[in-house]
Specification:
By secondary structure, this protein is mainly β. The chain has a single domain, classed as Porin (Beta Barrel), CATH 2.40.160. It has one helix and nine strands. It has one helix at about 1-15, and strands at about 25-30, 35-45, 50-65, 75-95, 105-125, 125-150, 155-170, 175-185, 190-195. An eight-stranded antiparallel beta barrel has the order 1-2-3-4-5-6-7-9. The longest helix is centred in the N-terminal third of the chain and has 13 residues, at about 1-15. About 20% of the residues are buried.
């Protein structure tokens, strides 16, 4: 991740172009934090930007059954977890494009996701792991700040509220619903404007 950000900054510094806040309409963005994502920022109007993005995670780990007898050897299972989310957001800037530094905005976004996760079941008295699919949806409302660093590069951060509804696996692989409402802070995002 650090190498990607450093490469993007190096390319932008070598590129010839106008200031990021004036003529640039389309940028590639990377956000690192609780929801690491890559996407595009498209300035549709001087006070409006659209931001589609995707998130992908892959995790492989050793797991042991939840129910174990401490007097017996327990099996270790290698499990794989995959998460894919796609989202679209809209940013409404407080004032038109300018070269005066920080640009505050309010925004909304919607994410839909698919997870492939391991769960435990009992077969003939033995615990085994299986993988299954779960779905999730979340929407957020937030305040954000965009700060131009050098030509074609901006940093951003956001804070707001989030509502999400997702599934999880219960005992025996039974799907259960979870609803969540609370606050969130984004990680630091970087936008590299390409034109």
């Amino acid at each position: 991740m650090r190498l990607t950000i450093l490469a993007a900054i190096s390319i932008a510094m070598l590129a010839d172009g106008s200031a990021a806040s004036e003529g640039d309409r389309l940028g590639l963005n990377i956000e690192a934090g609780s929801r690491t994502s890559v996407g595009v920022t498209y300035r549709a109007h001087e006070r409006l930007a659209l931001r589609p993005s995707i998130t992908f995670q892959w995790l492989q780990a050793d797991n042991v059954p939840t129910y174990i007898d401490p007097n017996e050897d327990y099996p270790v299972f290698k499990t794989t977890e995959r998460v894919l989310q796609a989202g679209i957001g809209a940013l409404f800037y407080a004032f038109p494009t300018n070269d005066h530094g920080i640009r505050p905005y309010i925004g909304i976004d919607l994410y839909l996701g698919h997870q492939n996760l391991p769960y435990q079941i009992m077969i003939d008295g033995a615990i085994v792991y299986r993988n299954g699919s779960l779905h999730q949806m979340s929407t957020r409302g937030f305040l954000g700040m965009q700060l131009p660093l050098v030509r074609r590069i901006c940093l951003y951060g956001e804070l707001g509220t989030e509502y999400s509804k997702r599934e999880r696996f219960g005992y025996g692989g039974k799907k259960l619903d979870i609803q969540y409402f609370g606050s969130f802070t984004s990680g630091i995002g970087v936008i590299l404007f390409v034109f």
